Structure of M56 family metallopeptidase:
Amino acid sequence: MDKLFLQILNMNITAGYVILFVIAARLLLKKAPKIFSYALWSVVLFRLICPFSFESMFSLMPINTQTVPHNIMYSQAPQIHSGIAAIDQAANNSLPAPAVGVSANPLQVWIALGEAVWLFGIAALLIYSAYTAVRLRNKLKPAKRIYDNIYEMDGIKSPFVFGVLKPKIYLPPILSENDRAYIIKHEQIHIKRLDYIIKPFAFLVLCIHWFNPLVWIAFFLMEEDMELSCDESVIKQMGSEIKKSYSASLLSLSTGRRTARGCPLAFGENNTKGRIKNILNYKKPAFWVIIVAIIAVAAICIGLMTDPQERLLTVEDYAKDFIEQEIEAYESSEWNDVKIIDSKITRLEKIASFDNLISSLVEVWSLEYRLKPDDITKAVLPGGMNEVDGWLTEDSSMGKPMLVFSYEGSKIKYLGCAWSGENDFTTLSGQEAALRIFFEGIGLLPNETYSGNHIVVKFPLSTGEICRLFLSQPVVQGDSGIWCVERWMDGNGTVYHATPKTDALTADYYKDLQKQCDDGHKPWLLDPLQVAIEYINDDLGQHTSLDELVPQYSVKVEDFMKTPESH
């Protein structure tokens, strides 16, 4: 549900820009037949229902169509990327970052609340539309059929079309023969153009995107262009000499309460003043006007339906962007009073590559850089940062930045930054564990390394804390499978990943141990409690006996993640 909601937000943001562009384009097409303005709303509909598009050099989109990243809820520094610097800066400064010791990211709470409100709004609109449709249908049961799908009924003040599968035209009995001919022709054109399907479908899309006021404006303007273009079609088919009498018919029908008002499955007369003005001013357009309008609408549709061609960024491009963000954070800090006037990359090296963690190849690049302040004597050095020949180093209390990338085909994708001080990047298994922690943090991997059987073992520390081990069978399930400590939790609820002491891949390391056990060596690996006591005494440096262990069998990772009770 989170991904769907964020995708709807992205589509909504993109469609908002398209709506503004179409509104401006309608002004430029003011002298052209209204069918062209009506056609432009198809671009808005496309952006509101289609989660993907195609890249084109003719794109008119100035913004990123994936403004809100799908992993924003789990990011340590949540940011949006609209492509418009001013918007990004204003929005990103207001986004809440996760607080230390809090179980849920504030963005997770806000997004969950937004999802609930969004679903409630959809349900309310659908229930309301269903209620009005049923009520109108019951009210129209006494209507008298004149011929074909045309009905007449006392009590209605204006004509309208109602129905989706079998649309019917409903007329008031007060119409003269001339008025009836114009009105019936108008409604028949609606049916011929499938407007009776287009409007309910557009309303359904509106229900999904109801929280955006621009979508409501687009819906009403689309209705207006639908009616205006239909009026022009009537005049084109019946001749310009009917304009005055047709206008008079609309004026006479504009008084009184409309029967179909509020029902999205029906549509009738609205915007009488605008329609009459458009009818009286309508002239058959010159051929060149039609050609220019067709070219303009086609160009606008292609430009707004396609995404801009994305420049293929390199690792170095992403590294420079990362440095720019660090400079911005440094200069905006309250304790700093200097400006960074220059920067340079001193080392950018790929240190690891894995194809066994997520669905695509993953690379880790180590980054070192220097920052040049305008006055080194005033520069404040945060924890870990040093000064070398007038330049500030990138060192911090978290270590050095490790940039993580994946590949989508031949296109590189920046996933984020891990820090060398928080993880062991000196061995292959350490790098693999660091990436797994990183991917779990952004929601690309589940919070368990191995599926199958699990055991939670509780053990006490001398300080009274109750810690937990989460044990799994990494190779074979059942009595013949070895056990390993996958992760452990201290008395404060902080979870640590257990990294095997090897320079090989973790999977290869455990396969070798399984083979040794199958050959009769290291049989203690088949006993989870022996594995637990070995890890506690050797890896954690604690002195605990088997009698102090409290095992829980056949558990899930959710059971392990419960905050421990300490004494």
Q: What stands out?
A: The chain has three domains: 2-141+197-251+262-307, 315-441, 454-560. Residues 99-103 have pLDDT under 50 and may be disordered. DSSP finds 15 helices and 18 strands in the chain.
